[in-house]
Amino acid sequence: MAKGRVPTRDELLAFIRDSATPVGKREIARAYGLKGDQRIELKELLRDLRDTGDVAPDRAKTFRDPAALADVAVLEIVKVDDEGHLLAVPHRHDEQKDGPPPRIEIAPTGSRGGPAPAVGDRVLANLKRRGKTVYEARVIRRLGSGPRKILGLYEEPDGRGGLGMVTPTDRKLRQSFDVRPTDKNGARPGDIVWVEASGGALSRRAQIVERVGALSDPRTISLIAIAANDIPVDFPEAAVEEAERARAAPLGQRLDLRDTPLVTIDGEDARDFDDAVFAEPDAAHPGGWRLLVAIADVAWYVRHDKALDRAAYRRGTSVYFPDRVVPMLPEALSNHWCSLVPHHDRPVLVAEMWIDAAGHLKRHRFHRAMMRSAARLTYTRVQQAIDGKPDREIAPLMENVIRPLYGAFKVLLAAREKRGALDLDLPERQVRLGEDGLIAEIGVRERLDSHRLIEEFMVLANVAAAQALEQRHASCLYRVHDQPDAAKLHALREFLGTLGVSLPAGPRLRPGDLNRVLHAVEGKPVARLVNETVLRSQSQAVYSPDNLGHFGLALARYAHFTSPIRRFPDLIVHRALIAAYGLGEGGLPDADKGRFTEFGEHLSMCERRAVAAERGALDRYVAAYMAAHVGASFPGRVTGVTRFGLFVTLDATGADGLIPIRSLGQEFFRHDEGRQLLIGERTGETYGLGDRLRLKLVDADIATGGLLFEIVEVIERVERQATPGGRPPGHRTALPRRPVAHRDGVRDKRSRRRK
Question: What is the pTM of this model?
Answer without folding.
Answer: 0.79
